[in-house]
């Protein structure tokens, strides 16, 4: 069973978290065009705050947070009362991990320009980032009420906050209303499918994914959505087929390679699985889960030295990973090394509970070692 036994061995949860966000779907050519145009304007008029702000926004959409921060900051230095520039710098600060500065900038943006709707949405998203869920809901509600142009995104994001609180009814209601506000958008369908899948409504979840693909056939999100439903249905071939589409459309989508690698290993196609694991690590060298999962394949195929090296790296990257620790302990048992196995199992039990399976397995392992 893909989502059961394989999931715990490799650290892969049957989740439908869609990694293809609105920012990832941005028109790359459009952003490049804005940057080129505003660069020309700035060269001719270095005191043009609006040009800096617009170029900063384009850099942000291209995920270049440092250049975005520089340009938005330049706009503020030129015009300290330019509210939109504070929103721009706040988003760059948030991307850089400076949550306090981001929130301060959003508050200043709203104070200076209370009619600019995106600042309300940005502030609510920052509350969500800080896991202040009640303030996030209030913030998105304010964005919806103040700015009709922000209603679609604010509804989707408020739905995500409700989902994080476990309030699936309100989450589904928000996703459904977002669909009405923007009938051509796939994103709300992808997110609603997550709720339905977790509730065991498999066919309804698949219907939502199909709608996402129909609305945006060139987007990776709908195909990833379908892949997760097929994964839940233990339909390995369909899962792989959808993930093939995902990686074709978005070659940098590392999660798709990780899921596909696990499924391929389950089918016995270890050569292709290894290529996918390697690609995840190339794209995201700090991905502890990828090392843990690749180690599971090495362990299963008797390559214990390679498995141990990967578990060591997974734990170096995330010393508190109960899953990687318990898996390394199991490997040490297979290698007839009870001393190190016992140390890993005890380390699992010494950490705050984050993975019940790992904790239960560590206790069982210690029982076998006595």
Walk me through this protein's architecture.
With 370 residues, the protein is mainly alpha-helical. Helix content is 76%, strand content 0%. It is built from 21 helices and no strands. The chain has helices at residues 2-10, 28-44, 49-61, 65-78, 83-95, 99-112, 117-129, 133-146, 151-165, 168-181, 187-198, 202-215, 220-232, 236-249, 254-266, 270-283, 288-300, 304-317, 322-334, 338-350, 356-369. Helix 3 (49-61) packs parallel to helix 5 (83-95). The longest helix has 17 residues, at 28-44.
Provide the fold topology.
Blueprint: H1 2-10, H2 28-44, H3 49-61, H4 65-78, H5 83-95, H6 99-112, H7 117-129, H8 133-146, H9 151-165, H10 168-181, H11 187-198, H12 202-215, H13 220-232, H14 236-249, H15 254-266, H16 270-283, H17 288-300, H18 304-317, H19 322-334, H20 338-350, H21 356-369
Helix pairs in contact: 2-3, 3-4, 3-5, 4-5, 5-6, 5-7, 6-7, 7-8, 8-9, 9-10, 10-11, 11-12, 11-13, 12-13, 13-14, 14-15, 15-16, 15-17, 16-17, 17-18, 17-19, 18-19, 19-20, 19-21, 20-21
């Amino acid at each position: 069973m893909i989502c059961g036994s394989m999931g715990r061995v490799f650290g892969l949860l049957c989740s439908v978290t869609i990694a293809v966000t609105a920012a990832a779907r941005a028109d790359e050519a459009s952003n490049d065009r804005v940057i080129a145009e505003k660069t020309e304007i700035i060269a001719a008029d270095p005191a043009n705050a609006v040009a800096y702000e617009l170029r900063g926004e384009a850099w942000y959409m291209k995920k270049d947070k440092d250049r975005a921060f520089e340009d938005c900051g330049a706009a503020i230095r030129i015009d300290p009362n330019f509210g939109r520039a504070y929103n721009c710098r706040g988003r760059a600060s948030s991307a850089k991990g400076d949550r306090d500065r981001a929130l301060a900038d959003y508050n200043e943006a709203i104070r200076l320009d209370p009619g600019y709707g995106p600042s309300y949405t940005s502030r609510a998203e920052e509350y969500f980032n800080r896991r202040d869920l009640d303030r996030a809901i209030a913030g998105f509600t304010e964005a919806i009420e103040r700015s009709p142009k922000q209603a679609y995104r604010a509804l989707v994001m408020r739905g995500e906050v409700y989902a994080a609180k476990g309030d699936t009814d309100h989450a589904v209601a928000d996703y459904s209303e977002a669909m009405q506000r923007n009938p051509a958008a796939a994103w709300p369908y992808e997110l609603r499918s997550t709720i339905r899948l977790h509730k065991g409504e498999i066919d309804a979840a698949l219907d939502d994914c199909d709608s996402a693909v129909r609305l945006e056939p060139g987007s990776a999100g709908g195909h990833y959505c379908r892949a997760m439903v097929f994964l839940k249905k233990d339909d390995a071939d369909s899962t792989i087929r959808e993930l093939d589409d995902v990686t074709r459309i978005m070659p940098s989508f590392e999660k798709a390679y990780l899921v596909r690698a696990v499924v391929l290993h389950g089918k016995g196609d270890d050569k292709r699985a290894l290529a996918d694991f390697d690609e995840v690590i190339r794209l995201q060298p700090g991905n502890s889960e990828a090392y843990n999962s690749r180690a599971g394949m090495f362990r299963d195929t008797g390559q214990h030295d390679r498995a141990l090296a990967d578990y060591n790296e997974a734990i170096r990257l995330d010393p508190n990973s109960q899953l990687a620790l318990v898996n390394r302990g199991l490997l040490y048992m297979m290698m007839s090394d009870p001393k190190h196995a016992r140390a890993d199992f005890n380390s699992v039990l010494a950490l705050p509970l984050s993975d019940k399976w790992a904790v239960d397995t560590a206790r069982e392992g210690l029982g076998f070692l006595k």
